[in-house]
Amino acid sequence: MFMKVAMSMRMFLIGDGTKIWYFCHIQSGARIGRNCSMGQNVNISNNVIIGDNCRIQNNVSVYEGVILEEGVFCGPSCVFTNDLTPRACFPKSHDNYGKTIVGKGQVLELMLLLFVVII
Questions:
Q1: Which of 3, 49, 63, 94 has its Cα between 20 and 30 A from that of 85?
Q2: d(CA 51, CA 102)
Q3: 31-32 and 13-14 as β-strands: parallel, antiparallel, unpaired?
């Protein structure tokens, strides 16, 4: 395992050959497979499961309830949510979070082209 990140000791599993870059946050109960790559500033929440050979680019947030199967690619700044109706005053417990499973080999990325026209 190659890590370029300062972390406090928490209970999580990281597979052999996985690379984790600067400013990543991996929370308790997370399981990350072998030969994965986490770009800088990635957040992996409690109890997330990430399969082998996944690539997670910079600034991605993967929240509790998400399972990434083998070989998933998450492009820069992807954000997964586990609560479709979040409320600050009435937070839900993790038992009420939605589940998201991303199948083997899927690619998640957003291509946005912005054209500015000055008249």
A1: 49
A2: 10
A3: parallel
* CA-derived radius of gyration, the chain: 16
By DSSP bridging, strand 13-14 and strand 100-102 are: unpaired
Q: Could you tell me if 51 and 31 are in contact, meaning their C-beta atoms sit under 8 angstroms apart?
A: no
Q: How confident is the model at residue 6 (pLDDT cuts 50, 70, 90)?
A: very low
Dig out the tokens for 41 from the structure. Answer: 């500033």
Per residue in 30-56, pLDDT tens? 999 999 999 999 999 999 999 999 999
* The pLDDT value given to residue 5: 44
13: Cβ–Cβ under 8 A, 6 or more apart, which residues? 30, 31, 32
Contact 69, 50 (CB under 8 A): no
